[in-house]
Amino acid sequence: MIKTQTASSPWRKSLGAEILSVFAGLALPAAAVGHHGSNSNPDLYLAENLLVLEGEISRILWRNPHPRLMLTVVGDDGVETDWELEMPGSINGMIANELDSDFVYVGERVRAAGVVSRRDPTSIGLLHLLLSSGEEYVSGNRETLWSDERLATRSQTLDPAAVRAAEESADGSFRVWGRRTSPRPSPEEYAGLLTENGRELAAQYHGPRDNPEFECQTGIPTHMFDPVTPESTDGAGRIHIHTAEYNVRRVVYLTEDRPEPVPSNVGYSTGRWQGDTLVVETTHIDWPYFDPYGTPQSDRMSYVETFRVADDDSRLDYTIVATDPVMFTAPVELERAWRWQPGLQMVENFDCVADWGDSD
Question: Fewest C-beta in 10 Å: which of 102, 173, 175, 194?
């Protein structure tokens, strides 16, 4: 189903049968949940319906987890409606692609296409934005819908000096790593191991209502599979693990000189070296979800993680074994890796804003 809502504009005459024919066969693929979720994720968006809007940009919120634009649309009855246009990706990814908030401006007349949020019927996940210049912003690798001029973005170019400095300072696993080498684990990998209690709680989860990332919150082990850059540093008897998304910081204690355990969203971690492999044991977890999809975990959950640099130094291999007698019938083991890309810079402040009002 295609819906079109417009204000009067030079483009309006081109809408109608032409737009319907373009969108009728458009495939909107499902994807994994991110902060507000991928804007084609059917759990969070009405991904089968594409809505076309025309109006004027009235506000810009250039903050993580996703940049957002406010579009004011004047209907045929003269009534104004404000629509939130949520862009995919983080500010940091936009900067890496040399796309800044000035690519669009307040007062600019635009045409937008996206999928409506299940959480807010006046918010859409933005897929296409036709600018007054005639250029079209397109999410991901989609084809343009209205223009032959695709808004140009560039791949990140690393500073040669930063690359050399990173290569010289890298010390085993202690460095800034690149993005993960494979997708986030899927619930299908372990759904069959849920207990009856676990299945009941998982069935009660409703993403548009319960996803804690709507409040800029996350926990272990979700943050360990985020797509953004992680960093590991040596801190004299302890190791610091920092993941950029939501600015999550963990401390792994290597000696007996450590504080008493306190439950937290990342738990309490102790570690030891087995040759070149760091083994981390984590307990005292005060976080309700095993993943961003609502798979539950209890306060009896414990983790054993391993970190090991590949022999060719190209990646950091990671395994996690999760044991929770309340929610799982057997341990869950997952494996992932981060590639080594010297020169990447750590994001020190993710600066997440959940809602427009929080930015004031």
Answer: 102
